Amino acid sequence: MNILDALLAAQNGGAVQQLGRQFGLDETQVTSALSALVPSLASGFARNATAQGGLDGLIGALAGGRHAGYLDNLGSLASPSTTADGNGILGHVLGTKDVSRQVAAQAAASSGVGADVLRKMLPVVAAMMMGAMARRASGAGQGGGLPGGLPGGLPGSLGAGLGGGSAAGGGLLDMLAPMLDRDRDGSVVDDVTGMLGRMLGGR
To answer: CA-CA distance, 85 to 81, in Å (whole number)?
Structure first.
């Protein structure tokens, strides 16, 4: 299951309903907002995970165990601490507030949801994505736990997922890959580079 589907299906659609109540949107608008925001965030997660030391950081953060609670306890999504945590996540995966604002503006253009609402939703969605990956890492939900294969217990399929290869059992980046391979050439590296270049102002 890719990460967008995981968010939409969380608690049998309860996460979508929670976001709707929280941000004054109907379920169709929430679905459109998530469909617009998640690919850009997925590219940030992928870039961060493949940077020097980034994979260790992601695994370490997921191992902390607290992120899974965002999808287990949907009421926590409205907590200021969730927004604060989400902003910290955005700092790692997108880098600057300017990039976050650009992501919200692009998502507004494609989803029809206002950019001001999407800016407020962005950190919550980032926290939810960490929750989905934490559940995958712990073996909850589809796909089971992380496959072994790299020194220090790092899963071999994490790197393989970005390169377009496959590994038995899947991995965290396998959740992100369907969001990234926009030209469907089997490799997400070029797509991540292009998406991030546009967000960072590259023309």
So the answer is: 6
- 33/132 Cα distance (integer angstroms): 17
CA 52 from centroid of its chain's CA atoms: 19
pLDDT in tens, the chain (203 residues): 788 999 999 999 999 999 999 999 999 999 999 999 999 898 888 777 666 555 556 666 666 657 778 888 999 999 999 999 899 889 888 888 899 999 999 999 999 999 999 999 999 999 999 888 888 777 654 443 333 333 233 333 333 333 333 332 236 666 676 656 443 333 333 343 344 444 444 43
Contact (Cβ atoms closer than 8 angstroms) between residue 64 and residue 83: no
Q: Which tokens sit at 8?
A: 């939409």
DSSP characters over 83-142: HHHHHHHHHHHT-SHHHHHHHHHHHHHHH-S-HHHHHHHHHHHHHHHHHHHHHHHHT-ST
Rounded to an integer, what distance in angstroms lies between the CA atom of residue 104 and that of residue 111?
10
Among 66, 60, 54, CA closest to 135? 66
Q: Provide the whole-model pTM.
A: 0.73
Distance between CA 113 and CA 190 in Å, rounded?
Answer: 28
